[in-house]
Amino acid sequence: xxxxxxxxxxxxxxxxxxxxxxxxxxxxxxxxxxxxxxxxxxxxxxxxxxxxxxxxxxxxxxxxxxxxxxxxxxxxxxxxxxxxxxxxxxxxxxxxxxxxxxxxxxxxxxxxxxxxxxxxxxxxxxxxxxxxxxxxxxxxxxxxxxxxxxxxxxxxxxxxxxxxxxxxxxxxxxxxxxxxxxxxxxxxxxxxxxxxxxxxxxxxxxxxxxxxxxxxxxxxxxxxxxxxxxxxxxxxxxxxxxxxxxxxxxxxxxxxxxxxxxxxxxxxxxxxxxxxxxxxxxxxxxxxxxxxxxxxxxxxxxxxxxxxxxxxxxxxxxx
Length: 319
Prior knowledge:
mainly alpha
């Protein structure tokens, strides 16, 4: 597909599926900024290609399915190429955020969040490929890398062409999942006492849980689960990431609770579709059996067949 075709798809279809700003901003203003920003243009085209790959029809006849899978892989490859160029462009300017480039950097960084989840998402890859914990670590690394851009550009963006990105209503509570999540993450520390966990690891876990709670409290009222899914990785520290790399059980317990928000966000946004279910399956493969009780609630939430919604509520209230 040509770049013109990808841009047409972005403005006519993909722009209406994106969070964070209104349709006018995504469809008209962001492409206008991209006209003078090659890296933003690349990321727009990347997201359009990811979207085309995700929403492409699936056929039942084997020959047709094979052709469609091949087309999907071609779009995925194209998306990854554009995203690679976009990342290089952002990296070249990330240390020099100015009023002149802040809109482009902010929009590109926002689209990179979407591209990061789409690139490794289970819907774009062969059913034979299992999602692994390393896949979410790659997403977290990219999110943490561009979070500084968002922070640096935020004030200039607030008064510029893309100011609609700054218009969000604060989360005032009432979201059932986030209420349950708040209750359950507060119990993680107590669960560690049942296992041989060092004081250093307990401290790291406590810090990650506190960041989780803060992310929930700062979420917007429009897409609170998505906000938590993106904002929590931004504030993760290197020591917690290091625990995830070695599959330290307590860190996987925290990550399992995170699966609930990406599972909920995946029901609304194509780029997170199936992430929660596949990631928690990867966690179950890595987590020692004697730790499985610590993730009973997130497993039951992400895999509703294991427990009814009433059981979710009962587990939350019983403690």
